[in-house]
User: What shape does this take?
Amino acid sequence: MDTEIAQYRQIHRAASDLRRGVPVLLTGAEPLLILSAETAGPQGIAELRAQGAPMLLVAPVRGAAVLRRPVENTVAAVAAHVPDALLTADVVRGFADPTAPQTRTALEPVLTPAAAMAALTLAKLGRLLPALLAVSPGPAFNPDGLVSLSASGVLTYPVGETAGLRKVAAAPVPLNGAPDSRVVAFRAEASAIEHLAILVGTPEEAEAPLVRIHSECFTGDLLGSMRCDCGEQLRGAIQKMAEDGAGVLLYLAQEGRGIGLVNKLRAYTLQDRGLDTLDANRVLGWGADERNFLVAALMLVELGIKRVRLLTNNPDKLAALAACGVEVVGREAHAFAPNGVNDEYLATKAARFGHMLD
Assistant: This one.
């Protein structure tokens, strides 16, 4: 386990370096020096240029709009050659971000490097746009000072996202309408990501308490955004638990269905241009839903709760908890009426995500 934790920590160091515009070396049969296209600056680009090999832009097929041309391909990642004249930070960022002004130059697809999927995985872990500059290291390349890790190890990381998850703090936090409430904080040792459990009453003593799995939503939960129904779901869940006498709201650090707040704002921009919430995520290069509900199941186990009544409209949450060994004895509907702004959003959740809103 200690070896695995060390490997996971190295992966998060690499993702952090990509966020800061620092190159990372992926090792393996075909090593690859990578740099986030979103955060690429003159120094990082110069380090890749110094290798003397052709520069590539790597992107997922579903996000191949960054290449500014259709890509007919069945593999999960594609790559394109970036001419030297286009290797400036502004132009590279323009290729990475489909919400940026359109770049007129089309990039020609080439053979995709074997480590491409590992590169995209690292970018996603860093909550970056999954588009990267990549180059084969030259014979004189010196990796000193750069994070190096195996491409194959990165691809196995999702199974370790919750490694070392444990309770780290707890305190009574009386809530408006639910004064008998506590907040328990959990932290995953490998990633240091923190998730919260809001306990109303004493759900540990209930036979099957109400449970809500709620992904954090800064815009909806804190600002009262009308673009979604998250704020209503959060406050409504706590109210229902107080009325029921007990319950647990698992507040997961998985903003925007796991793509992060910045990318969610980009998705909003694409929605304003005519895409729905699912297609906007895909154009950005992300899946329709990137969340991991295993963390919710592990939190319930740590709280000593094995049987629940799930407060949800999402069939994926029901299936995920059951698959993780939590007995779901019933579902409580949790739908709120459209407000005139989120009508299409709710319709998309029903039609394309299968949410049970009737």
Q: What stands out?
A: The domain at 2-159 is CATH 3.90.870.10 (DHBP synthase). The longest helix spans residues 2-19. Residues 164 and 189 are 5 Å apart (CA to CA).
